[in-house]
Amino acid sequence: MQRVVARRFGPPQEVLQCEVASPPALAPQDVIVRMRASPINPSDLITVGGAYRHRVPLPFVPGFDGVGVVEEMGPAAAGVRLGQRVLPLGAAGGWQTLKALPAEWCVPVPDDLTDEQAATAYVNPLTARLMLQRLAPEPDQLVGVNAANSAIGRMLLRLLHRAGARAVAVVRSARARALLQDEPAAEIVLQGQALPPLAGGFDAVGGADGDAMARAVAAGGTLLHYGLLSGVPLPADQGRVQLFPLRAWVHAVSRPELHAAMAQVFQDIRTGMLGTAVEARYAFGDVQAALARHASPDRRGKVLFSAPE
Ligand SMILES: NC(=O)c1ccc[n+]([C@@H]2O[C@H](COP(=O)([O-])OP(=O)(O)OC[C@H]3O[C@@H](n4cnc5c(N)ncnc54)[C@H](OP(=O)(O)O)[C@@H]3O)[C@@H](O)[C@H]2O)c1
């Protein structure tokens, strides 16, 4: 089997390499999933960079998202069947041919979803859905979304529209503004421009951009801070900021709650509400080319690692 491995923390292009490895051992309650597709998300690269070094032992295989097929089951593994397509959640490891994990962390995938839809069903769609529930905007309220051209930014714009709220989309370039024309934003603002008073906001950028949005949120409103794309922490808390880590939610809820939330996500993926554009697919052996494509300023969707058909 092949796997993309980080043996030390550092810039992904420098530390990630594809290795040939022995198949994983099968513990009694585990399954082995043959991965079919797994995208590159910012959270994967942040982890490679060492942001979570206190809880990520080296070497490690990145990839929090992805879909595969159950290929082997330990004698005590339950809840899935051989040959079933599943999302193998709970820990990184999607960027390899075979991923071993406890069967209880597998979420079965409905047959009508494509591999691309399933591979991008977890990290962004579930986060967007949960954050919208947390913010609970009222109809006609103005809500800020920065990095609005990102995969999750677009989902938030659509969910806000469905909720009857009005999204103020913040982007960092005229190109991103042009690309957002098809999404339901009430207003598109360039980074650094003044924001209107907001009832709430979603910040994936941090730094000055996140701070500007926090200051635009009216007293009593909430800014959900869920990403650090600028690499710069949010300045001192304005009293309106709440963090949103998907990982904490997923590890805190019961398995039926997780499955119920994913069932709703799958339904919203069918309609396109939580759909993700895919830019390109690469084999694990082409990790450097995949990373370069991910970092390209022209990228318009996710870059996936995928198994040959
Ligand atoms: N807290 C959680 O649990 C959680 C869950 C899901 C996602 N996230 C976070 O959500 C963010 C977006 O993820 P994604 O998968 O949707 O990303 P993505 O589709 O790969 O898109 C990345 C986006 O980031 C924008 N960007 C990069 N650097 C930026 C900067 N310094 N200032 C403003 N925009 C910048 C890019 O803008 P251009 O289009 O202009 O190039 C692009 O639109 C990431 O920070 C990720 O970690 C967090």
TrEMBL record:
InterPro entries: ADH-like_N (IPR013154), ER (IPR020843), GroES-like_sf (IPR011032), Mito_Enoyl-ACP_Reductase (IPR051034), NAD(P)-bd_dom_sf (IPR036291). Residues 10-305 form the Enoyl reductase (ER) domain. The keyword Lipid metabolism applies. SUPFAM superfamilies: GroES-like, NAD(P)-binding Rossmann-fold domains. It comes from the Bacteria. Keywords: Fatty acid biosynthesis, Fatty acid metabolism, Lipid biosynthesis, Lipid metabolism, NADP, Oxidoreductase, Transit peptide. Its EC number is 1.3.1.104. It catalyses: a 2,3-saturated acyl-[ACP] + NADP(+) = a (2E)-enoyl-[ACP] + NADPH + H(+). Signal peptide: none annotated. It is an enzyme of class 1 (oxidoreductase). Belongs to the zinc-containing alcohol dehydrogenase family. Quinone oxidoreductase subfamily. PANTHER family: ENOYL-[ACYL-CARRIER-PROTEIN] REDUCTASE, MITOCHONDRIAL (PTHR43981:SF2). This is enoyl-[acyl-carrier-protein] reductase. It comes from Labrys wisconsinensis.
